[in-house]
Amino acid sequence: MLTRNIAGVIVFSIVAVFFIFTALLMHPFGVPDESDMDDYIIDNTQEETGANNGVTAVVFDYRGFDTLGEATVLFAAVTGVIVLFRRLKK
Amino acid sequence: MSGMSKIVKTISSIIFPFITIYGLYVIAHGHLTPGGGFQGGAVVASGLAMLLVAYGSVWTMGKLKEKHLSINQTLESVGAIGFIGLAFFGLIFGTKIFFNNFLVNKQDYLFGATVKLGETAANINTAGILPLMNFAVGLKVIAGLFGIVLLMAYATRLKEGK
Fold first, then answer.
1. Residue B29 in contact with residue B80, Cβ under 8 Å?
2. Which range of residues forms the domain containing residue B128?
3. CA dihedral angle for residue B132, residue B137, residue B142, residue B145, rounded to 10 degrees
4. Overall domain count for chain B
5. B106 within a domain of the structure (yes/no)
């Protein structure tokens, strides 16, 4: 039991150190390496899509295909739940 | 799962319309304020789930029939078909691209007003097909999530030997 505890502490330390170093390596918030796409969307959203909400403009217009996949996932989940639970009565 | 006390039933019945209105507001203003079809649909479905928990699945399943579930799933399919249909309409009108926003900045049509650039007061009559897609996705999410909750409540009822 003691060896298991020691092994657990060692594994926890390794994982914790890994996460802490990863967190320290992150670059500062709000300063992306490549900002071309962000700048384009921020500058042109209002005139191209007519939406004041840039997030909706990205989700439904610029990246609409991604939203289609998301909706398909939801549809598949609902279909699976129906297949599982529909005919339960004896 | 049986129903809760009369207090809970009354309060949730009073709150339910406000939750629904708030969710529909989030859907309808998806192109202006934070939120959209998915988020507003989740809000409305949460209100429906609250009613389901308050009244209990035994009472609810006594009221509901098989065809109500079919209607629910038909509504979900209508939402999905509306969404992908609007996407395919982009192949017919305008510059003929999938997901082309063919209604934007066309003054004659609904949601076609030109938006003022910069930080201006929001006009709900803008953004072309984005509000229509928000409505379609909202309908789909409401029906889909409520269907999931309903069927799981149905399964719980049977497990408790009723």
1. no
2. 6-159
3. 180
4. 1
5. yes
Q: Nearest residue on chain A to B141, judged by CA atoms?
A: A74
User: pLDDT tens across B79-89, in order?
Assistant: 889 888 888 88
> pLDDT per residue over A45-66, tens digit each?
877 777 788 888 888 888 888 8
Which residue, among B91, A67, B112, has the nearest Cα to A57 in the 3D structure? A67
Query: A2 by DSSP, 3-state: which?
Result: helix
What are the residue ranges spanned by the domains of chain A?
2-85
CA distance to partner chain A, nearest, from residue B8 (Å): 28
Indicate whether B1 belongs to any domain.
Answer: no
- The nearest alpha carbon in chain B to A56 belongs to B31
Of A52, A55, A82, the CB nearest to B115: A52
Are B130 and A48 an interchain contact pair (Cβ–Cβ within 8 Å)? no
Which residues of chain A does B38 touch, with a Cβ-Cβ cutoff of 8 Å? 70
Please indicate whether, in this complex, the C-beta atoms of A88 and B154 are within 8 angstroms of each other.
Answer: yes
**Cα B51 to Cα A6, B19, B20, B27, B92, distances in angstroms:** 50, 11, 12, 21, 43
Is 0.90 exceeded by the ipTM? Answer: no
Contact at CB, B32 and A51, closer than 8 angstroms: yes
* Inter-chain Cβ pairs, chain A and chain B, closer than 8 A: 111
